[in-house]
Design a protein that fits this description.
Radius of gyration: 14 Å
Largest sheet: 7 strands, mixed
Structural class: mainly beta
């Protein structure tokens, strides 16, 4: 069955970096839109970054210039390189995927909140603190 497993979370100081990984199994990632979402305590889930099957990406304004999403379809891995981390980035980070193709504003909505993603990982905690 489809499974997504995140790793790479931890405690980091403000200004530091982390790289999250998401290992996929049970499906061919080439044809999926895969993304990262996060949920901070007491806040709603928000989209961080997505990459569509054709390579088109979405990135939240709050992480532009700091976070980079990438995928290795051969290894079935999704990455999120996070630089210049801030305390506001503290959250549980989730990997999610869908085989459905979204474009335009629908793609923006998919990546903005995650509604429409069919499969989710359990999450990995990122804590940014001095």
């Amino acid at each position: 069955q489809v499974q997504l497993v995140e790793s790479g979370g931890g405690l980091v100081q403000p200004g530091g970096s982390l790289r999250l990984s998401c290992a996929a199994s049970g499906f061919t990632t080439d044809y999926y839109t895969i993304g990262w979402f996060r949920q901070a305590p007491g806040k709603e889930r928000e989209g961080v970054s997505c990459v569509r099957s054709d390579g088109i990406t979405y990135k939240a304004d709050s992480v532009k210039g700091r976070f980079t999403i990438s995928r290795d379809n051969a290894k079935k891995l999704l990455y999120l390189q996070m630089n210049s981390l801030d305390v506001e980035d503290t959250a549980v980070y989730y990997c999610a995927a869908t085989p459905r193709y979204y474009s335009g504003s629908s793609f923006q909505r998919l990546c903005g909140r995650g509604a429409g993603m069919d499969f989710w990982g359990e999450g990995t905690l990122v804590t940014v603190s001095s």
